[in-house]
Amino acid sequence: MTNETNMLRHLGEVARQEDHPGLDFTRLADDIFHVDGSAGRHVCFASKPQGVSIRALQEFYPNGVLPKLLVKSLMHRLLFAINWLHCGCKVIHTGAQQHIPL
After folding, report:
1. Helix, strand, or coil here: 39?
2. What H or E segment, with its residue span, contains residue 68?
3. Distance of alpha carbon 18 from alpha carbon 2, whole angstroms
4. Residue 18's pLDDT is what?
């Protein structure tokens, strides 16, 4: 099982046990399953649609510059999600392809 699979399962378990505003802004796996294909076995994650990416949002604005109010809102949501990951789930991302429990 991959580290990503383990982490998504951990986040799902914590999400079922608590209520935190950061949950609304965190992508969780609704299902984790395997698909066998000609190139081998693949792990698949299914989640609810989240909306457009920031890159896609930039296409709607002149010169790709997002309005200040939108950026503030996105940052607010990001900080709520990170707070839930740190405080609720007790995990951090090191950037080294592993998640370390706090």
Report:
1. coil
2. helix 68-83
3. 25
4. 84
CA distance 62 to 81: 29
Nearest to 24 by CA among 87, 70, 64, 83: 83
Write the pLDDT tens digit of every residue in 49-66: 888 889 999 999 999 999
Long-range contacts of 74-82 (CB under 8 A, 24+ apart): 77/24, 77/25, 78/25, 80/20, 80/21, 80/22, 80/24, 80/25, 81/22, 81/25, 81/26, 82/22
Site of tokens 């989240």: 50
Could you report the per-residue pLDDT of 13-35, keeping only the tens digit for each?
999 998 899 998 999 999 999 99
| pLDDT tens track for 67-99 | 999 999 999 999 999 999 999 999 887 766 555
